[in-house]
Each structure stands twice: as C-alpha cells, then as structure tokens.
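Q: Is it fine to ask for two folds in a single conversation?
A: Yes, each is treated on its own. Send the first.
Q: Here.
A: Result:
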Amino acid sequence: MTTVQNLLIQALKRSATHNSDIEVSPVCILWPDKKHQWEAIIPTLRGGLIVVGEIALGGSIEPIHNAVTLAEIAIEKGATALLMPVTCRRQLLDLPDDMAIKIDIQFYSDARDALLKAMVE
C-alpha cells in the first residue's frame, strides 16, 4: 500500500541521486500539502528525539562548538535520543560516562540524512 510516509521516504532517497557534473546535491525537499496528507506521518516521527544543528543555504552544516553542553541539556529535558552533525563526534568524548549512558546519540551528514533518521523505521 502506498502511503504518504512511503512516498516521502522514496522522495528523500531519490534526492540523493543526481548528476554531480551538472547539479549540486539537493539540500531541501519541498512537500506542498494543501490537503494535510502529511499529518499521517506525524506518529512515525521518533518521540523523545532532539535534533540539533544548522544547515546553511548552500547545504553546508554549520559547526557546533558546544556539543557536550547540548547533550547534557537534552538529557536534563528528558530526551531519549539526540541527533547531531557527525562533526560533533569527537567533542562528545568529553561527555561524562554517567550522562552518555542515558541517551542514544546518532549523527547525520546532511539534511536528508537527518530527516530519514528522525523517522521511525
């Protein structure tokens, strides 16, 4: 059965394929939804997830300089998962062990990757 969620996932996966000789990698997918059909996917988004990071207009991911602090705040606010740019990986070595075991930290490489990881599989 074709659902809005399946169509969204297919569109996101297709967005990764492009001719790099003549196109730049897409950084955004516009999903106009006059009939509110997207509402069906809301339950499939991961609860307890906090996504951090800033993506510039050109598609580059802006650096995060306080990844440990963000992780600690996420834990304090009750998050069960934290999705961060992969460039934060090394900073998180400074996250105390007692905090690190309280949250599932995952990383994304671009906007498409973040959205796919934010959805329940």
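Q: Second one now.
A: Result:
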Amino acid sequence: MKTTTWSRDGVRLAAATAGVGDGPAMVLLHGMGSDHTHVEVLASMFGDRYFTVLPDLRGHGASDQESDRHDIATLADDVAWLCAQLGVHDITLVGHSLGGVVSLAVAAAHPGLVSRLVLLDPGIALSDEMSAGLSDFYAGLDDETYAAVLREYLIPLMFVPSDPPQTVQAVMDCLTAMPLRVFRQLGEGIVAFDSMAAVARVSCPTAVVTPQFMIGDIARVEAAAPGWEFGRVLGTGHYMQMVTPEQTEAMITQFLRTHPLGGGHGEHAS
C-alpha cells in the first residue's frame, strides 16, 4: 500500500492506495478519531477487483490537524478533490461512521462522482434529543479529563462484549490521541449536518449496513429512501469492518453484484 500526500489550500491531505491500478475505483472512508488503517482489512478484500483509495480524513492520521475547518461539507470536498488528483471517477464509495456521513455528503454534493454508495453504521438521522445530548457532551469536554471521559462514554456506546479487547484498545488509543479541538469540531460538524436533506439528494444505488443497534434513526432513513437497501451484521458493535470483515465484505459484495457498473464506469484514469 502506497501513501501519498497533497496540499489543498495549505492543508496536508494523505491517502493510501492499493489494488488493481487500472481497475474500477473504490474509496473507503474511516470513522471519527480513526485513520485509514481501520478500513485497511476490508479494503484488502477488494484489492483483486478494485483500485482502492483510503484517505486519512482532514484531522486524522497523516493528514493535517492544524486546520480549523472540520465541518462535513469541507471533508466531503476534500474527498472529491483527492479523487480529482488521483484521476478516479464513477467511484464505489464506502464510509464507516463519520466516514459514512462524509460519504453521504459526497454523493449528495458531487453526484457525478459516485456510482454506488455503501454506508457502514453512519451517524445520520439523529433525533433532536440525541443531537442536543451530543452537543452538550462535546461542549463539556476539557483537556484534563478528555481521554478518560471518552473511554467511559464511548466504549458502552460503540462496542459489544464479544468485540475483541485488542480492537477496543486500538480504536480507543487512536480516538484519545486526537486533539480535543479537532474532536470537538468534528463532533459539532456531525450534529450540524442536515443528513436527511442529503439523503433526499442522493441518486445512486445505496446500501446501509448496521450492527444490531444504530446511533441514528434507521426507520426514518428507510422511510425517506425506499429505494435504498438495508442490512445488519451479527456479533459485532460499531466497528464491523474490523471485528467481522468477512461478513461485512460479503454484504457489500452482494450489493455491488446487484448494481453492476455500466460500460466504462469506474475506470481509474491512467
């Protein structure tokens, strides 16, 4: 896997690439407080069929943490910009958690770029009560207790008892290493994003895959997008692509088989 960095308006953006260099493009976006390695195993399962692109979203991994812009629209524009730098189009876009929110925004704002969309437990369709609670949570964080509070609040929310301890540890270590300023801006960006308006603007085939619970109101999404497909994975919490990658890959693959790319679509520009 090769990692490349670019500068967009003075902000460093990084992405790892692998797979079939002249094949159709699949872009996989990680969650909040993660980096591209958290979708790496899943990406490797598509490497014999796709040119895979794994960005580190702004504020994460090898990308810049110095920016003060971490709203969803900016992150979505970053992804579209990276695709232009790589010469990929008609992409299959897969996003987990925050990456799912960003993927939804990309598909809504750049419809010509995305041919198929897969959202893995995205933080969308938040109720007013959930949005208010999250806003209070982000506002109440402070540098002194930040890491401890995140572990106390997020572990019960995102994991189930059967999730491997090493996965829980790896995710939380990555999350708590993020500067509080960036974490808060990202969280506020999720709360402020009008996900249901974006759902209404998406025109490509879309699948939503969740564990047994979803932070947002999935019934609301189902009602608003009757043409979308919905499925659940078993035996995992929020990080399905790390805990049950085979099950997650199988569901994505079946969705893609039922929505094949058209002639010439998704080719990686050489």
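Q: Anything structural to flag on that second result?
A: Two points. The chain has eleven helices and eight strands. The CA atoms of residues 72 and 189 lie 6 Å apart.
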